């Protein structure tokens, strides 16, 4: 598989726990598919590894220790996963699953067209705040006529303190690349966005060889049976100090690890008023003396945001699988 340059950010896996913590070599998980992962080792070479036991715990961004399989060859087995700085979850039909770890920031890549979903955006921002991961919103395709409406919809998020970057990647490619460079420098950045927003254009603009890299990994994972990996780590520089993690399509974020009563704290506009309610355990729905409801009536909180909070509160209050 692909070889990278001299050892960099992915060469360490400190803090591993368990019996295998001091066994094996260190590596960085750069791709996953099902129970298989691709691990990059200190010299930049990569190999396929499998979990030890039935359950796969390693996700993209994990620092791990691995050993060659008993059969030898160019495959290995994960013997320990290092303690994580943070962890994000995705949601499938049945349960929440972890899918990316040790991130420095989340980049929500949306566009003027197709019109973005505030429910998806809100879920992503809540998930990031829960994991203590800074989030930035990027609005692409600002050359299109719907830009004023998109800006108006994002105004509440700017007021909450979320950075919003505006660009037109296809129309002003060089300017957009210049805008993105300092934002990505020295960080491991997870880029997420809905289909059609231009996320693939971003990856191909930053990394002209990205498709070839995906092809290498897919071939190594025998993906004649598969279409894509679930997520993939790309280095942006030879020193391996900056990285972009791409996850195909828009991942619906798993929020079932969050208690419904914690939700208000993770939505900055709600949190700004929650301590002023008459009752300390106010759910901001129909209780008397609710400061959040009053803020909505006064135009300080968007009615859409309260509606999203209520829907998520109901969802997280349901019995968990």
Description:
It is a single chain. A five-stranded mixed beta barrel has the order 1-2-3-5-4. The chain has a two-stranded antiparallel ribbon with strand order 6-7. It is globular. The model is unreliable at 2-21 and 223-228 (pLDDT under 50). The chain is built from eight helices and 13 strands. β9 (135-140), α2 (147-159) and β10 (164-166) form a beta-alpha-beta unit. The protein has 321 residues and is α/β, with parallel strands linked by helices. The protein has helices at residues 118-130, 147-159, 173-184, 199-206, 210-220, 268-274, 291-297, 303-317, and strands at residues 25-33, 36-41, 46-51, 63-68, 75-81, 87-91, 96-101, 105-111, 135-140, 164-166, 188-192, 231-235, 243-246. 27% of the residues lie in helices and 23% in strands.
Mean pLDDT: 85
Q: Give a quick account of the main beta sheet: strands, pairing sense, barrel closure.
A: 5 strands, mixed, barrel
Rg over C-alpha atoms, rounded to the nearest angstrom: 21 Å
Helical fraction equals: 25-40%
The oligomeric status of these chains comes to single chain
Task: Briefly note the structural class of the backbone.
Answer: alpha/beta
What is the number of E strands?
13
Strand content: 15-25%
**Total helical segments:** 8
Identify the strand order in the major beta sheet: 1-2-3-5-4
Low-confidence stretches: 2-21, 223-228
**Termini, distance in Å?**
39 Å
């Amino acid at each position: 598989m692909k070889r990278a340059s001299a050892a960099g950010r992915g060469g360490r896996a400190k803090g591993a726990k368990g019996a295998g913590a001091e066994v094996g070599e260190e590596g960085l998980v750069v791709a996953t598919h099902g129970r298989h992962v691709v691990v990059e080792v200190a010299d930049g070479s990569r190999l396929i590894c499998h979990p030890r036991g039935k359950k796969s715990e390693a996700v993209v961004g994990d620092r791990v220790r691995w050993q060659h399989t008993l059969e030898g060859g160019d495959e290995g087995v994960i013997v320990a996963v290092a303690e994580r700085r943070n962890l994000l979850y995705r949601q499938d039909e049945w349960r929440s699953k972890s899918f990316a770890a040790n991130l420095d920031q989340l980049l929500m890549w949306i566009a003027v067209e197709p019109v973005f979903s505030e429910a998806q955006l809100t879920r992503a921002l809540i998930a990031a705040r829960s994991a203590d991961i800074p989030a930035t919103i990027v609005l692409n395709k600002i050359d299109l006529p719907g830009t004023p409406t998109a800006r108006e919809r994002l105004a509440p998020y700017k007021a909450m303190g979320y950075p919003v970057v505006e660009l037109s990647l296809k129309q002003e490619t060089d300017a957009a690349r210049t805008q993105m460079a300092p934002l990505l420098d020295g960080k491991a950045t997870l880029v997420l966005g809905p289909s059609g927003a231009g996320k693939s254009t971003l990856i191909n603009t930053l990394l002209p060889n990205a498709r070839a890299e995906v092809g290498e990994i897919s071939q190594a994972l025998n993906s004649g049976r598969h279409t894509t990996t679930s997520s993939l780590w790309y280095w942006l520089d030879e020193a391996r100090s900056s990285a972009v993690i791409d996850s195909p399509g828009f991942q619906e974020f798993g929020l079932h690890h969050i208690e419904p009563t914690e939700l208000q704290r993770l939505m900055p506009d709600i949190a700004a008023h929650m301590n002023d309610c008459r009752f300390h355990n106010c759910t901001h729905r129909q209780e008397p003396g609710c400061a959040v409801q009053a803020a909505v009536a006064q135009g300080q909180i968007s009615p859409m945001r309260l509606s999203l909070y209520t829907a998520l509160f109901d969802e997280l209050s349901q019995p968990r699988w």
